[in-house]
C-alpha cells in the first residue's frame, strides 16, 4: 500500500483549465476563418483570443502549482511545510493532539510519527470543495505509513466537538483562510479553546491582514490572556518558501502561529 496525500492543486483542475484553453483556441480559429459578417468577426474573434490567453496563463500557473506541491516531484513544498509544522509539536507520553482540517491526513500522521507514544485526532468536514479527500483516505495513509496512533472524524473547525482543554497540542495547516468568515481570529480562539494549560500549538496559514486582521495585536492579546509563549513566524522568508514563490503562488502572508498555553 502506498500513501496518497493528494495535491493542493488537483490534477482535474489543471486538466479542466487546459481543456478550456484548447476549446477557446479552436473557437477563435474557427470564427476567424468562417465567413461571417466582418462587424461580428472584429468583436468576437479578439474576445475569444483574450479568453484563450487567459485560460493559457491560468493553466500554466496551475501546472506550476501542481508541480511545486506534488509529493513526488522535486520541489515537494507540501512535504516541507508538513514536516516543518510537525517539528514544533512535542507531546508527553500518553498525550493527545488535534489536527484541524486534516485533509488527507498528512500533518496528523507526521505529528503522530514524531510522537509515537501519544495519539492524534484529525478532524475535517471533507466537503465537496475537496471531494478527493476523505476519512477513508486518511486512514489508508496512516496504514501505509505504518502509523497506529491516529484517528479521524468529521467535524467543523468553526465549532469543534470537543470540551475545553482536551488536547496537549493543536495543529492546522492552510485551513482557516478557506473558511468564509469576517473574523478568522475567532476561529483560532475556537481551536485554542480545546488546548490544555501548558499545551503547545502550531497553526500555519495565510495570515495576511486582509484575511486575519492585525495578527501582531492578536499575539499580544494571547499573551495578555496568560499564554506562556506566543510568536508569529514568517514562513515565506526561505523557511518553507521564498518571497518570490509566495508571491506568484498567492501565499504571501503565510505564517505559523506557535506557542504554549
Describe, in plain words, how this protein is organized in 3D.
The chain has 261 residues and is of the alpha/beta class. It has 2 domains: 11-69; 77-260, 3-Layer(aba) Sandwich (Rossmann fold), CATH 3.40.50.150. The protein has 9 helices and 7 strands. It has helices spanning 11-33, 38-69, 77-86, 106-114, 135-145, 184-193, 209-212, 215-224, 243-249; strands spanning 96-100, 119-124, 150-154, 167-173, 195-206, 229-234, 254-260. It has a 7-stranded mixed beta sheet, sandwiched between helices. Helix 4 (106-114) links the parallel strand 1 (96-100) and strand 2 (119-124).
Question: Sheet bearing the most strands, described?
Answer: 7 strands, mixed
Q: In which range does the helix fraction lie?
A: 40-55%
> Structural class, please?
alpha/beta
What is the number of helices?
Answer: 9
- How widely separated are the two ends? 39 Å
SSE succession = HHHEHEHEEHEHHEHE
What strand order characterises the main sheet? 3-2-1-4-5-7-6
Number of domains: 2
- The CATH topology of the largest domain comes to Rossmann fold
CATH top level of the largest domain is Alpha Beta
CATH architecture of the largest domain: 3-Layer(aba) Sandwich
CATH H-tier superfamily of the largest domain: Vaccinia Virus protein VP39
Question: How large a portion of the residues is in β-strands, by DSSP E?
Answer: 15-25%
The radius of gyration over CA amounts to: 22 Å
Whole-number mean pLDDT: 93
Number of strands: 7
Amino acid at each position: 500500500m502506498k500513501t496518497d496525500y493528494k495535491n493542493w492543486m488537483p490534477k482535474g483542475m489543471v486538466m479542466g483549465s487546459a481543456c478550456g484553453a484548447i476549446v477557446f483556441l479552436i473557437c477563435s480559429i474557427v470564427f476567424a476563418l468562417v465567413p461571417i459578417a466582418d462587424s461580428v468577426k472584429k468583436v468576437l474573434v479578439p474576445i475569444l483570443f483574450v479568453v484563450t490567453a487567459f485560460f493559457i496563463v491560468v493553466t500554466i500557473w496551475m501546472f506550476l502549482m501542481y508541480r511545486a506541491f506534488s509529493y513526488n516531484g522535486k520541489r515537494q513544498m507540501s512535504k516541507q511545510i508538513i514536516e516543518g509544522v510537525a517539528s514544533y509539536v512535542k507531546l508527553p507520553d500518553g498525550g493527545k493532539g488535534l489536527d484541524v482540517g486534516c485533509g488527507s491526513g498528512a500533518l496528523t500522521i507526521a505529528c503522530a510519527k514524531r510522537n509515537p507514544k501519544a495519539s492524534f485526532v484529525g478532524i475535517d468536514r471533507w466537503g465537496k470543495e475537496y471531494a478527493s479527500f476523505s476519512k477513508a483516505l486518511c486512514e489508508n495513509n496512516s496504514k501505509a505509513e505504518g502509523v497506529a496512533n491516529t484517528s479521524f472524524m468529521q467535524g467543523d473547525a468553526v465549532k469543534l466537538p470537543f470540551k475545553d482543554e482536551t488536547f496537549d497540542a493543536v495543529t492546522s495547516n492552510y485551513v482557516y483562510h478557506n473558511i468564509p468568515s469576517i473574523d478568522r481570529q475567532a476561529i483560532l480562539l475556537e481551536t485554542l479553546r480545546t488546548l490544555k494549560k501548558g499545551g503547545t500549538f502550531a497553526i500555519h496559514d495565510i495570515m495576511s491582514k486582509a484575511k486575519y486582521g492585525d495578527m501582531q495585536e492578536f499575539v499580544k492579546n494571547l499573551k495578555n490572556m496568560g499564554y506562556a509563549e506566543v510568536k508569529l513566524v514568517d514562513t515565506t522568508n526561505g523557511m518553507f518558501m521564498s518571497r518570490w514563490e509566495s508571491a506568484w503562488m498567492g501565499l504571501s502572508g503565510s505564517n505559523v502561529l506557535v506557542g504554549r498555553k
